[in-house]
Amino acid sequence: MTNTASTESKLPEAPGAALEPTKPAGGVKDVRSPKPGKARKPADRPNVVGGALGWIWLGIIILPIYYIVITSFRTSEDLRANNQLIPSSEPTIAPFIRVIENDFFQFFLNSVVVTLSTVAAVLAVSLMAAYYITRATTFGGNRLFQLILLGIAIPVQATIIPVYYLIRELGLYDTLWALILPQIAFAIPLSVLIIVNFVRDIPNELFESMRVDGAGEWKILWSLVLPMAKPALMTVGIYQALQVWNGFLFPLVLTQSREVRVIPLSLWEYQGQFGIDVPATLAAVVLSAVPLLIAYILGRRYIVAGLTAGFSK
Amino acid sequence: MTATASSDTSVGGKATGQRRQGPSFLMALPAVLFFGFFALIPLGGVLAISFMEWNVLGSPSWVGLDNWDAVLTDRPFTWRALGLTVIFVVGSYLFQAPVALLLGVFMAGQQRYRALLSVLYFLPLLFSSVAVGLTFQSLFSPYYGISSALPFEWLPHDWLANPDIVMYVMIFVVGWCFVPFHALLYQAGVRQIPTDMFEAATIDGAGRVRTFFSITLPQLRYTIITSSTLMLVGSLTYFDLIFVLTGGQPQDSVRILPLDMYITGFSANNLGYASVIAVILVAIGLSMSLLLNKLSGSTKMESDKAGA
Question: Which residues are in the ABC transmembrane type-1 domain (chain A) (predicted)?
Answer without folding.
Answer: 108-299
